[in-house]
Design a protein that fits this description.
It is built from 5 helices and 7 strands. It has about 200 residues and is an alpha+beta fold.
């Protein structure tokens, strides 16, 4: 019986010692984890979107197309659809006449910075390059709800350097990922471009 009492007493002493150590650790301020320094791996400047000055012919064809669509909508008495058509035409005119801003872009050891936005590697999925109307662009899918895809213009000479750096962190797609919306937009864009040239 005395051995058992001594064992219980020893266990109580050990428990008290452990509780004292726990309370000491809780009272000590936690030293913050030291984050490794963020290194800039590559930096470039580019327009925020593709831009080319539109000709008077393009403006004329756009105006005629919008006018025909509005006449058809008036004929079929779809008055509420006229406002969105006019809004889209206005946006197209603004995008064609106002030059885009120049963004500072950077690939860092933590992620990608574009303008005033930063995306860490855990938020990025995969990437690929496309070339359209003389502009080289990189598309980066994200895991975010917005934006779901980053679109950054790059210099053609920098393409391989950027691909090499990004491939260390996220997968590279040789063939671009496209949806039916991308295909439809591309078809409409090509058709309208042929019409206006």
């Amino acid at each position: 019986m005395t051995e058992r009492t001594e064992t219980v007493k020893n266990l109580k002493d050990q428990l008290t010692t452990l509780q004292d150590k726990i309370s000491e650790l809780e009272q000590k301020p936690q030293s913050p984890k030291k984050q490794p320094a963020i290194k800039t791996l590559f930096r470039w400047q580019a327009f925020s979107r593709p831009y080319s000055k539109r000709t008077a012919k393009w403006l004329l064809y756009t105006f005629l197309l919008v006018a025909i669509i509005i006449l058809i909508l008036l004929f079929v008495r779809e008055f509420f659809v006229i406002v969105p058509v006019l809004a889209i035409a206005f946006v197209a005119y603004i995008l064609s006449s106002v030059p885009p801003e120049i963004l500072d872009n950077a690939i860092t050891s933590q992620g990608i910075n574009s303008g005033n936005h930063s995306y860490i590697w855990e938020e990025l999925d995969d990437f690929w390059f496309t070339e359209k109307n003389g502009f080289m662009a990189i598309h980066i899918d994200t895991f975010l709800s917005w934006p779901q895809r980053l679109f950054l213009l790059v210099n053609k000479d920098d393409k391989e350097k950027i691909r090499e750096i990004l491939a260390r962190y996220i997968p590279y797609r040789e063939i671009p990922k496209t949806t039916w919306i991308d295909s439809l937009g591309e078809t409409l864009s090509k058709g309208f471009h042929k019409l206006t040239t």
